Amino acid sequence: MHPQTINIVWLKRDLRLRDHLPMVAAARAGVPCVVVYCFEPSLVAHTDYSDRHWRFVFESLQTLKQKLGDRLLVCQRECLEVFQDLADRYQIAHIWSHLEVGLEITFKRDLAIQQWCRQRGIRYEEYTQDGVIRGAINRRGWRAYGELHLSQQPLPDTSDRLASVALPPDLKEKLEGPALPKKWTTPNPNFQPGGEDKAWKYLRSYLRQRHRNYSTQLGNPSLSRHSCSRLSPYLAFGCISWRSAHQETEAWKVRTGEDFNLPNFLSRLYWRTHYLQKFESMYKMEHRAINPRLEEVGRPHDPDLWQAYVEARTGYPMVDASLKCLEETGWVNFRMRAMLVTFASYTLGLDWREVAHHLARLFLDFEPGIHYAQHQMQAGLTGYHTLRIFSPNAQAEKHDPEGVFIHRWLPALRTVPAPSCWQPWKMTAMEQELYQCKIGEDYPAPIVEYETSTKHFKDTYWQHREAPETKAELPAIWERLCIPEDVKKYEVDES
What we know:
The protein is mostly helical. Helix content is 52%, strand content 6%. The model has no long low-confidence stretch (mean pLDDT 95).
């Protein structure tokens, strides 16, 4: 007897049913189909991921399960092993997926799957999303491609047209692998829940009301939790497509005439895909500086400083509060993220890779393409972006004037009013007694002196950045990563 012919839709960072071209293609084919997601042990073990990510993925898959039922196969095994076991029992005709702008480990996995499909005579199609051009070595034509992608109508949910495959119980058990850890399957109310329905709920509440204070509250670490869209984890794991979010926002902007906050949000959606394309064109920035000459900036490992940073006891309240907030909820606003990177780089002199890995584990919305391109820019590793250092003390004064954020996340400072809670080490002994907060006991003293340490690392950095050999790298970097019309601007800046 000939084995049954089946098709596969392979889910990666596209955990949705709407605007999902692989699902549409599978429905059109009319062949029984298995929709597969794999919690890959090799990826789970990667230093950039933590339980919060896999819990979000699990919750997103549960939303899909409500609609797909038995057509969704969730496995805790490597993808290639699962496909091989299916191929041993069935004739796989076609595999569809979206491309993933991911870590090197996922890029190599994709190449291995493609090679395996060629060897087995299986047709494999990988569709773009987010306006990213696979394998582009420069930015020529990228803007037009992205605008074309945005202009196309989002695809409807066609999952109800997928014919199912009746997997034998023994095969299904083998394919699924071990049961998922309880810490992934147990909800945590401190984190945004995963799922396509939640993504649309967040977007619509933002458009109907929350966007009104977007631009004015963007920098405030407390108020931004409500006035920002909070779509980032849903975009990162593909619970909603970039195109759907953009078109829904654009339609609301036209309908309401809102000409300030929503255009600002739309520009950030656009720049998101700009950074994804950067990573696609230079995925090795996961491992090395964009400007290789800046790898030479000396950053000797100091285990005491590193541990203080990881444990949120640097003695700088805005830094510690941001790290505590991330640990508990997985989200802080962009300004606090930039501050965490520049403080680690230019005040503590920590290695950028260690910091990038640590923050990746904390960010619920960790998306490699955004994370590494942004991290390197804030750490000054491109060699051409304006160097902006976000002082924790200045951020506290400007964006947490009443100390609301500091008090929320640092219990030891809740009795210390602003402005004293911004720089508590400046309190007199009498003030420490009055506010019942002794520096060095209840809350740590600063682990370094900010101005002195920051000046030291800045001076070291600029010596390397201004070196002729560092500047000589810039034309090749601009050619690879920059939109052509922006290159002239950087050339003028560096002349």
